Amino acid sequence: MYSKGDNLKSVRKIACLSLAGVAIMPFASCEKAQEEKPMNILYIMCDDHSYQTISAYDCRYINTPNIDRIAADGVRFTNSFVANSISGPSRACMLTGKHSSANGFTDNKSSFDGSQQTYPKLLQAHGYETAVIGKWHLTSEPTGFNHWDILIGQGDYYNPVFIRNGERVQREGYATNVTTDLALDWLENGRSADKPFCLLLHHKAPHRTWMPDTCDFDLFSDTEFELPVTFYDNYEGRIAAKTQHMSISKDMDLVYDLKLADKDSLIHSRPDLERAGRMMYSRMNPEQKRAWDAHYDRVIAEFKKQNPTGEELDKWKFRQYMRDYLRVIASVDRNIGRVLDYLEAEGLMDNTLIVYTSDQGFYMGEHGWFDKRFMYEESFRTPLLMRLPGGVKGDIPQLVQNIDYAPTILEAAGIEIPEDIHGVSLLPLLKGDEWNSGRKGLYYHYYEFPDEHSVRPHFGVRTERYKLIRICDVAEDADRKLEGSWELFDLETDPMELNNIYGQDGYEELTDSLRKILLELQVKYGEEQYSNM
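-> structure tokens emitted (533 positions)
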């Protein structure tokens, strides 16, 4: 499935061509069947899965035939974004259909208030059987679910510990496989066949530290990756970009991130990360360790022999990062294929809304970075694929956001959407009907500071062409002689967001109009206290 070299490039090219230029075409109507039986919901979400590494979006790096099946049989949203690009807050936005300040989970140091309204609770109240399996990452225990089997915190790739309806259970195996096994078991044996279901299947992968399954170690071993053209971005005119700590060159750890935990302990890195990197190995069983050693001992030996420095070290880090990340994606795609095959075999495809997304985007070396958080496109933008029985096929270009998932699922289930939800149902788009969101732009707000990546708090608005960002003041600015600032980008002429045109002559009217839209959105979403910053 995942061939190398020229064969892989050919497969990617075919995958891209098969999706390019697909017009939105309606399926045969299934409205009568839907009236007779409520729509099932399968919501699949990965953690930190970049749209750049899904071949339905981008053919440069990997072929993802199973994820692409959802796009080929349904729709691909080409302008899908999040409200707050960090794991826990993004999940809270998805569950509630509300921006972070309204749902109370603004950063990963928060705790989700499980007593509040969520779409699984509303489904449950209307006769749905609900389950969440995999990564939860909201601190508090899940509510609104008949069954939950969740990873603790970030979870571990190997032999992870789950909490199953309140009871801790350690399971042998690789997290992506184990999570899929649990989901399939619930679909087959754990639910009531006479009730509609909503399953939230949340994978840990491909979250840092990108530890592949043992069967995938050899994938991409001969693949070279060119540095993105913005890898050596100098961040001119962008204060927050200058002060971050998520650089592949400076901040990606040799032991923790890149698996160089040598047996003779000659390779050292940041002490806390080195300890964590070496502890990850201790979680494995003997068979897993043998497979790991057979692969990474060769990588370590190669690194020691080359002893790269400067730009050569940057290239080595980027290449190793990409190889491990893509290996993890290969496992994700394979396991999604298992779930889709099960639905087909059980005759569930004709009555199940399937959603595939990530909790946010991710940097694959753009601007020299890994991780997310910024309102720049690579982390703000997120993949979103949906397959609605009786719906349309093709691309959907409208601006949508992860606060829209909850109302979409509720409407698909025939449930009235509460008035306090911020999002707008996407169901008309899935059916090929007219859709008017009433939006002039999308609102974004990132709150978390400080943390290990030191991305400064900021908020902003994105329209179809422009993006206006306000970088907030922080206490550390006094020592660094920095102040809050504004950034303005024309995404049509500057898609890589390198040229901050805020304050330049000729953009006064545009700036005023965007600041007006930003204020309107802040008032609408209850964040007017930030309007005078």
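Residues 281 and 289 are 7 Å apart (CA to CA).
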